Amino acid sequence: MTPIRPDGVIGRDHARVDGIDKVTGRARYGADEPVAGTAFACLATAAIARGRILDIDDRAARRVRGVLVILTHRNVGDAIRPGTWMLDKGHMATAIAPLASDAVHFAGQIVAVAVAESFEAAREAAALLRFEYRSEPHAATFGSPGAEEVEPRAMGETALAAGEPEAALAAAPVRIDTEYATPAQHHNPLELFQATCAWDGDTLTVWESSQNVRGYQHGLARQLGLRPKQVRVVSQVVGGAFGSRGELGQATAIVALAARRLRRPVKLVASRRDAFTIRSFRAETRHRVQLAAARDGRLLALCHDSRELGSRSEHFALAGSDSTARLYACPNVRTGVRGVAADRQTPGFMRAPPETPYLFALECAMDELAWALDIDPLELRRRNDTMVDPVHQLPYTSRSLVRCIDAGAAEFGWARRDPRPGSMREGEEVVGFGYATAFYPTQVGPADCRVALAPDLRARVEVGTHEIGTGIRTVIAQTVADRLGIAIEAVEVAIGDSDLPAAPLSAGSSSTASVCSAVALACEALRARIGKAATAARNAPLHGLEPAALRLGDGRVHIGDASEPLAEAVRRACRGRPMVEKATHTPHGAPPVIGPVLVRRGLPVIAGGSMLRDRLQFAFGAQFVEVRIDRATGRIRIPRMTGAFAAGRIVNPRTARSQLMGGQVWGASAALWEATEIDPRSGRYANCDLAEYLLPTHADIGRVDTLMLDEEDTRVNPLGIKGVGELGVTGMNAAVANAVFHATGLRVRTLPIRLDALLAAPALAGA
């Protein structure tokens, strides 16, 4: 790969190429597609958590003017196949077929769909449907009668072991043994879940916001008994996803079936309330962390035992200790993850899925250990830094944690911290400083792409990736402009369509590295053709020179001291028509042949992180936060936070900073506000709207400083890119909890931290 120029387009702060379209309304989200003759669908969902539907009274619903069809298990049955769950090498959020039987598996399950000429008529009809149920005993969450412990299916390893942790715990002079809990949370993207389905003969087109258009294509084909080529999925822009649109939900196939039976397009835009149950969520977790250390702070043992809530149908677990066990140097390690099956929909992936809950437990425990040792929390991390995985003794490709700690501490002013809990006060407020480490695996998936360069120096790049809000169009355009020496404004980027060359699931902060690596390979082939044409032409300035020494810049082709206009060299290479190159990038650790084939089938193939046999690939960061707590009311404020991150080569500092800053805010939200409340008596969510699902507002978030440190690591991929989208989330919830302890002297080990948790704080009024 041609080296990246330090003054090139890669690494330059550039405005989003689709920014104007988004702010002027020209960008089309899934529900915006104008399809003539569209009918509208509305969902009816189960009011019980477990049981059977005994009867459905739809007489009043059918009398609503404009109602076209009402679909239930009575007229759907086996018309829609179950599909295959993602961890079973499928595409679905659950293997339960929609409207297949009278069984109710969880509260909020789809039990009917009303379709009408207008949205209002469909909504009225759905509300008039009456269901008679036979309710069965259900388990809502941890500790509920009937909840059963199960062996989970996980993306990571559910058990790790090294050394003799039990003996080390028993012999260590300093030990920590604590338990932590994190709640259920929901993604709540601004764009509601939706799908518009239209048939042309036996060919189906679906407009739906997605993180995996190929996965939706193949999943729907399986559900509807079609060949994948009979299904096209279009997803031009996505109004937020955060993991909720990675797996195919069950509503889309119902909409497609309705459209086929009515012989006209059908559109569904689910309500905010329905969004809490028709897709996945971040499940509750419970953790026990045991740490043992020498008096100088060196870790001697780390044990992390966890439980995660799952559904009856799929025993899903994140198994985040697969990563946390490798964070610090420690000779004796043991982790174990168990699942708990309850009557809920299957949980799934939500931004930084394993790291957000698991790092909360570990980084709070590390803070507790620092207090027990009377060592500065930053110094404790420095003393346990490592370039080698303590479990399998594999090296990190790069690790800039200490650099992040030092840079973040200087920017934040950590040196002003009085280590005594409750000692820092200003007026009627107590002040706390908190720290936690941030880290996230560097993951890359196989990707195909096609790049065409025209004689007029305009380029078109085609790749079936997704604009989920991160700015992927911009970084793709920057890669093409940089590699071909053309203006970024001359690059057209086509994405978000299952007809385009396949890209992996947009998840795990892998898209930029995956897609731009493939794009760079295609551009490298075009550069070679330009060099060959430039050096082969007689009477040309570069004739007879070595094409491998070609450089592109300033609108010219350079070889040594000789050069000619780029336009002339490209015109000669094109011979009157665009040059087209296709490329496939298969990252280190991915199956070299079958990997790209699986991605073309919409299956998740991502390599890196701790999944490699020969090394570890991670990005690191340091999270600092200041909290202020009113001594009289217990109100918590976050006036400022600082994050320092090292994530390889940053393609666009502007979009990367926005992602990291948004992650820092989200991490604070997880610490103080976010939790999906469940009523254990009914098994139903109690706060499934944005009025009661608490999120921070602008007034709640103060200054957010985001530092990005230079880091070069071309072992992770040819361009040296590490993902940033999820890195900024990790560690922040623990940093807030640690700051609350520093301010009050009270350890809060259950998230979110609310007013009632602080009533016993010794530093507050009434102590």
Automatic annotation (TrEMBL):
This is Xanthine dehydrogenase family protein molybdopterin-binding subunit. InterPro entries: Ald_Oxase/Xan_DH_a/b, Ald_Oxase/Xan_DH_a/b_sf, Ald_Oxase/xanthine_DH-like, AldOxase/xan_DH_MoCoBD1, AldOxase/xan_DH_MoCoBD2, AldOxase/xan_DH_Mopterin-bd_sf. One of its GO terms (molecular function) is oxidoreductase activity. Keywords: Molybdenum, Oxidoreductase. Residues 24-137 form the Aldehyde oxidase/xanthine dehydrogenase a/b hammerhead domain. Pfam families: Ald_Xan_dh_C, MoCoBD_1, MoCoBD_2. Belongs to the xanthine dehydrogenase family. PANTHER family: ALDEHYDE OXIDASE 1-RELATED (PTHR11908:SF132), XANTHINE DEHYDROGENASE (PTHR11908).
